[in-house]
Amino acid sequence: MTTDAGLKPPASAPASQAIWLAAMPGVFVVLWSTGFIGAKFGLPYIEPLTFLGIRFAIVAAILIVVALAVGAPWPRGAQAGHQVVAGLLLHGVYLGGVFASIHHGVEAGVSALITGIQPLLVALAAGPFLGETVTARQWLGFLLGLAGVVLVVWEKLALGLGTPFGMGLSVLALFGMTAGTLYQKKFCGPADLRSGNAVQFVAAAIAMLGLAWLIETMQVEWSGRLIFAMTWLIFVLSLGAITLLFLLIRRGAASQVSSLMFLVPPCTAVIAWFLFDERLAPVSIAGMVLIAVGVALVNVRR
Fold this sequence. Notes:
globular; mainly alpha; single chain; 77% helix
């Protein structure tokens, strides 16, 4: 059995370009995993929507300056609207759900695990949305992956690590990331990444700051840890990892690129164990195995 990654470089690509293209998925997984860690570092000093609103506003300002400096074409009309929708889904709903979930006591590794079943949802939704076929084997994989997540969530709730509301926010993030990936693949491919990302982050910043003004105090304690977390999330995640994600989506099928997301939970779990002493019990490990089998059934071809 072999996997079809959909990310192979052209045969004529220079050696350095081929090496970078081959390394992109692994670099993306590691960088994306640190987003959950950055959230946990910063959230003791700032509320989640305020955190994201400030982060998105800074990223948007940087991207606007870059896009204007290089003369990047700006999306107009319907294309601008597509960028707004994608930004609200990928940055607003997804990251808003993750940050709020961790703020409500869900462990970083568990939030990563819940959102890590995104490949299964993308593979299933890609059929009606992008014209891909869903087989009986893929449906079985979806059910196994879902069972694995239920095991982990059940065990963490029994230990008092998080609340049903907090877990529900991670589920909301999962659906936001799934819908955003599909929408980005279908409607946002032709746009320039610099100006397109700028529009996305402007929309997300307005949404997060507006919600923060309504339901949060918007008070910030500017500690060294918060400044480090904010800087890391702005430059490494919002400018680095997001750009890599969009490049990968352009080069490969949505379901194949999304399969990388399942590598994020174990990577996040290792980092969270090292930094925060978050541990996985046997039940959680069994749940991760079920999810791994489910993802394989959905994404591995004969």
